Amino acid sequence: KDAGKRTYRVFSSEMVDKAAEQVWLDSNLRKALVATDQLSLYYQPKICLKTGVVRSVEALVRWDSPERGRLSPMQFIPYAEESGLIVPLGKWVMQTAAKQAAQWQAQGLDIRIAVNLSARQLCDSTIVQDFADALRQAGLIRCLIDLELTESCLIDETLAHALILQFRTMGAQVHLDDFGTGYSSLSKLARLPLDSIKLDQSFISSINEDLTSQAVVRSMVAVAQQLNIQVVAEGVEVEDQADFLKSIDVDSAQGYLYAKPMPVKEFEDWLTNRKK
Ligand code: C2E
Ligand code: CA
Ligand code: CA
Ligand code: CA
């Protein structure tokens, strides 16, 4: 009985913590979406492994809460997905990225921006319209916004297929993020009209220690090449990893070896210094 009571109490206090956290996040994220100076996008470049050229960046959201300071996406994205706030947050991300792309275009910088989409956003019936609105409001003549989907976005394959086609018709490239970590079969990859896969960083981090990871990466890359799908490696931290990826013709790479995600000004400086 005693143990039973104790177990119950622990379980219950965890539930209270989680519920309290959900309440805090809900009301504060709602405020952040109005007073948008709390939210910002950081940009991390994708580097072409053959030429070293940067043609695109990934936008990663950051939240500076007046109460708690900097929160990483892992601290609030899952809650936002649960509450549905990911939909307005996702709209803000698309709009902000589109404005930034238009600004770079006006400065003569030809850079595409990829935004991350949650499965929850894809289920929202207005996602295509929201994307189109973001492009139009930013005055983007050419679509410079790409989308990163995770395997959880592909569970309803018929819906995913139709949406990917619509985004591509609008000029967006569609990438499959965290590839290899989910349950997607390789045959699904063959059926979907994707532009690229992003090999998850968990594979990249072990490439140089273990031959199994090398073999796994090699075979994923070979399949993608057969299907004419580009390959991006994420989480590249050391030169040896980049060398291996180059040797098997991976198209591009992203990671701390090249640059961390940066605020817009810092990214622009990084790009300028690199060209010198
Ligand atoms: P992700 O899309 O897989 O993004 C890659 C994460 O790895 C980013 O973490 C990035 O900062 C980090 N990273 C980049 N290079 C390296 C490296 O060389 N080594 C290591 N160890 N890490 C590296 P971040 O910014 O904390 O974002 C975490 C996740 O949050 C993202 O994973 C993505 O799933 C989600 N996320 C971020 N922004 C958004 C957004 O605007 N919308 C949605 N739906 N999700 C987002
Ligand atoms: Ca991503
Ligand atoms: Ca990823
Ligand atoms: Ca990830």
TrEMBL record:
According to the entry, every stretch annotated as the EAL domain falls at 22-275
Q: Which GO terms describe its biological process?
A: regulation of DNA-templated transcription
Q: What is this protein called?
A: Cyclic di-GMP phosphodiesterase Gmr
Boundaries of the shown chain within the full protein: 381 to 656 of 661
